[in-house]
Amino acid sequence: MLDLRAHLAETAFLVPVVILFSMVPITIAGWGVREGAMVVALGTVGVGREEALAISVLFGIASAIAALPGGLIWLATGRSSGLPAQSDSLDVTPALRSTRAGTDGQMRRTAGCS
């Protein structure tokens, strides 16, 4: 068990900031960035390096376990993206090109597009 002497108010402010830093897309799933930021942030409130690193690694492992069901479903469905297939999509571009807003704010159909 980790014996930490940090107050809830301090950690409630610092941990979301650390998570925000870990979302910068320079590493896979924020590994490394999160650990460094957690060591620095929790070090400011008196938590030791080893404890801060352990907290960060445990948080990363818990996040990976929480994401595992979604990843398995994604693999099982065989879809590479959440976007609909090209044949399923509706192309509204021609309709948008042929409408213009009138001076009174009403949309009016025009003969051509410019």
List the helices and strands and how they pair.
Blueprint: H1 8-22, H2 33-43, H3 49-77, H4 93-97, E1 99-101, E2 107-109
Quick overview of this protein structure:
The chain is mainly α and 114 residues long. The protein is 53% helix and 5% strand. The chain is built from four helices and two strands.
Features:
4 helices, two-stranded antiparallel sheet, mainly alpha, elongated, single chain, about 110 residues
Protein architecture, described:
By secondary structure, this protein is mainly α. It has a domain at 8-77. It is 53% helix and 5% strand. The chain has helices at residues 8-22, 33-43, 49-77, 93-97, and strands at 99-101, 107-109. A two-stranded antiparallel sheet has the order 1-2. A hairpin with a 5-residue loop joins strand 1 (99-101) and strand 2. The longest helix is centred in the middle third of the chain and has 29 residues, at 49-77.
Counting H and I runs of at least 4 residues, what is the number of helices?
4
Q: What class do helices, strands and sheet pairing give?
A: mainly alpha
Poorly predicted segments:
none
Spatial order of strands in the largest sheet: 1-2
Radius of gyration: 25 Å
**How many angstroms separate the termini?**
69 Å
